[in-house]
Amino acid sequence: MCIACRRRESQSSLQRLVVTEDGGTRIVVDSSRSLPGRGAWIHPAEECWSAAYKKNAFARAFRGAPAEPPDSPCRIHHSEKSG
Question: Per mean pLDDT, which range of 2-6, 7-11, 74-78 is the poorest?
Fold first, then answer.
C-alpha cells in the first residue's frame, strides 16, 4: 500500500523505502528490496511523493523515526533507472 495515496498495488509497481543510518539517519529507496529494517512503499509518481511530504507520511510510516526523507523524488527515481 502506498504511504501517500493509500492505494493497494503490487509491490512491483511501488518503490520500497527504508531508514538507514549510513552517515546519519535518512530514508533511502531500496531498489533491491533487500535492505534490513522496516520498509514503506510509495508510488514513483510525483503526485504521491508530494502528498507524502504534505501528510508527513514518512514519519507515520516509520513510526516517528527521526529521519530525513529523500530530497528529490524525481532525481532518485531517475538515478535508479540509470544505475
Answer: 74-78
